[in-house]
Write a structure and sequence with these properties.
2 domains; about 10% strand; alpha/beta; 12 strands; ABC transporter transmembrane region fold
Length: about 575
């Protein structure tokens, strides 16, 4: 079996769904042509069988010539072997084309999702992303898979019409006229099928989004008694999807029914004309048998052409959704072209925050939303006048690798725990680095219990909230960026664990710039520098204990009215 593409999938043509499908076809033109050639030979071997049987009847049976009968029987056996051999090879090539197109599309969509980052959930619903990654890639694969059999079906129709014209012009004309009529009747039915398929896909995407939100917030919904309400809404949307699916099936069944009816009429006419010609002596008995065989054979290529039309239609709809994802641009460019000389000062003009390199800076805000907004600007997840070493952040190269913002909404991916803790850049990570990060995050107990090679379920569902938070912190530490921004990294852990993390974080990030957005006294007390933010701007700065003594607003924010330590 051929290897699937594993390197860069390339730059797709996203000007239209049709151009995207053509781009995929051009990339794998060798296997597409090979599949089409094998499909043509496979179908032609079947198309020639009625002619060989007719000659066997005339030259062998009617003429009572045993050698001629043996000769044509051998030819029929050869055609059978050809059908078997080319059928296997055609199927293998078609499956490769299916897998290659689907896999390449998955690569492109995954790369685009990584490129979009925080833009993805704002511009594309979770349900639509799921639909693209599951059903749409399937339909795109089908559109390339069907080309092998479809090419053979078209070639077989031409050859059969030619054979029938050579044998009997009336029979050949019936086929030459009847096939275009069937295609002309079926053509207008493809548009409503495409429109209904598009509507059905949109509703499926919306329903998937609803299901994703429902599962993510199930515990909260149960807590406020809203589970039944959202279940009713999900039920209503499910019925909308069902009705849209029925509409698609109805359009598809009308297309298939019309093709079946017209195909049956064509076969009846071919049979009737052939019988009349044989009765009048215009054709021989063998030619009549061949005509019947052609009439029966025509069912396969005509059905294949109808199937090809349906799959290409669905592939076009699916490609439209993929193109929409691939054409989406990030809200903010990820990087510029300036490479800084080394760790530098990070300054946010809107808040007045200045983060000095190589220090652990804590950001305590009276309103957590202010801290999150500053963190988004520092990581360029939101636009703002932020400078890195005096250079606007928008002009700095590789911002996403230099400045990592870790929040509690980050997900653990399924796979081994080792893979879940490995960042998406910087190459492989050795065990010593992993264990150092796990110790700094106070997550050694998790690894001791299950091991680094244990399987992690999607989003780390088997872990508690505190365990997930510690593992996310360990992953951020493994990334070891120039600047690490942590937003409430210890909100879900107990006080003893938080104390250990606070004691170890500074040492783990020695020489690197770290910003911790928190109001935890334990974390603030270990920081080199604390900035207190009120109404979106830095209101006071200094050491934690100094601020407790000199700034009542800071003390109220971090102690919540309790006695200061």
């Amino acid at each position: 079996m051929k290897r699937l593409p594993v390197a860069d999938p390339g730059i797709p043509d996203v000007r239209s769904p049709g151009r995207y499908l053509l781009w995929l076809t051009r990339l794998q033109w060798r296997t597409v042509l090979a599949g089409a050639a094998l499909g043509v030979v496979w179908m032609l071997c079947q198309a020639l069988m009625p002619a060989v049987i007719g000659r066997a009847v005339d030259d062998g049976v009617t003429a009572r010539d045993a050698s001629a009968l043996a000769l044509w029987s051998g030819a029929l056996l050869g055609l059978g072997v050809g059908v078997a051999a080319t059928g296997v090879l055609r199927h293998r090539m078609a499956i490769y084309n299916w897998l290659s197109a689907a896999y390449r599309t998955i690569q492109l969509v995954t790369r685009q999702a990584t490129r979009l980052g925080g833009t993805l959930p704002r511009r594309i619903g979770a349900g639509e992303a799921v639909s693209v990654g599951v059903s749409d890639v399937d339909d795109i694969g089908d559109s390339l898979d069907i080309l092998a059999r479809g090419s053979g079906a078209v070639a077989a129709l031409v050859v059969v019409a030619g054979l029938m014209l050579a044998t009997s012009p009336p029979l050949g004309l019936v086929v030459l006229v009847g096939v275009p009529v069937i295609l002309a009747v079926g053509g207008p039915m493809l548009r409503p099928l495409r429109e209904r398929e598009q509507r059905h896909r949109e509703l499926v995407g919306e329903l998937n989004s609803r299901a994703t939100d429902l599962v993510a917030g199930l515990r909260v919904l149960r807590g406020i008694g809203g589970e039944a309400l959202f279940a009713d809404r999900y039920r209503d949307e499910s019925q909308r999807v069902r009705r849209a699916g029925v509409a698609v099936a109805w359009a598809d069944s009308r297309l298939m029914g019309a093709q079946g009816l017209l195909l049956g009429l064509l076969l009846a006419v071919v049979t009737w004309v052939g019988a009349r010609l044989a009765q009048s002596g215009a054709i021989s008995v063998g030619e009549l048998v061949a005509g019947y065989g052609y009439a029966v054979f025509l069912v396969a290529p005509l059905k294949t052409i109808g199937e090809m039309a349906g799959k290409l239609t669905r592939g076009h709809v699916a490609a439209g959704r993929v193109v929409r994802v691939l054409r989406t641009e990030p809200d903010l460019p990820h990087s510029g072209g300036i490479v800084p000389d080394g760790p530098a000062e990070l300054a946010d003009a809107a808040s007045g925050l200045v983060v000095r390199p190589g220090r652990l800076t804590a950001l305590a805000a009276s309103d957590p939303r202010d801290a999150q907004a500053i963190a988004d600007r520092l990581g360029r997840h939101a636009d703002g006048e932020v400078a890195y070493g005096g250079v606007p952040l928008r002009d700095i190269a590789d911002v996403r690798e230099r400045i990592v913002v870790a929040v509690n909404e980050d997900r653990l991916f399924s796979g081994t725990l080792r893979d879940a803790l490995t960042p998406g850049f910087g190459g492989p990570v050795d065990d010593a680095t992993l264990h150092a990060a796990l110790r700094a995050a106070s997550a050694e107990d998790i690894v001791e219990a299950i091991g680094l090679d244990a399987h992690v379920a999607e989003a780390g569902r088997e872990f508690s909230g505190g365990q997930r938070q510690r593992l996310r912190l360990a992953r951020a530490l493994v990334a070891d960026p120039e600047v690490l921004v942590l937003v409430e990294p210890t909100s879900a852990v107990d006080a003893h664990t938080e104390a250990r993390i606070a004691d170890r974080l500074g040492a783990a990030r020695a020489g690197r710039t770290t910003v911790v957005c928190t109001t935890s006294p334990l974390m603030l007390d270990r920081a080199d520098h604390v900035a207190y933010v009120e109404n979106g701007a830095v209101a006071a700065e200094g050491r934690h204990r100094d601020l407790l003594a000199s700034e009542p607003r800071y003390a109220a924010a971090v102690t919540r009215g309790e006695a200061a330590p």
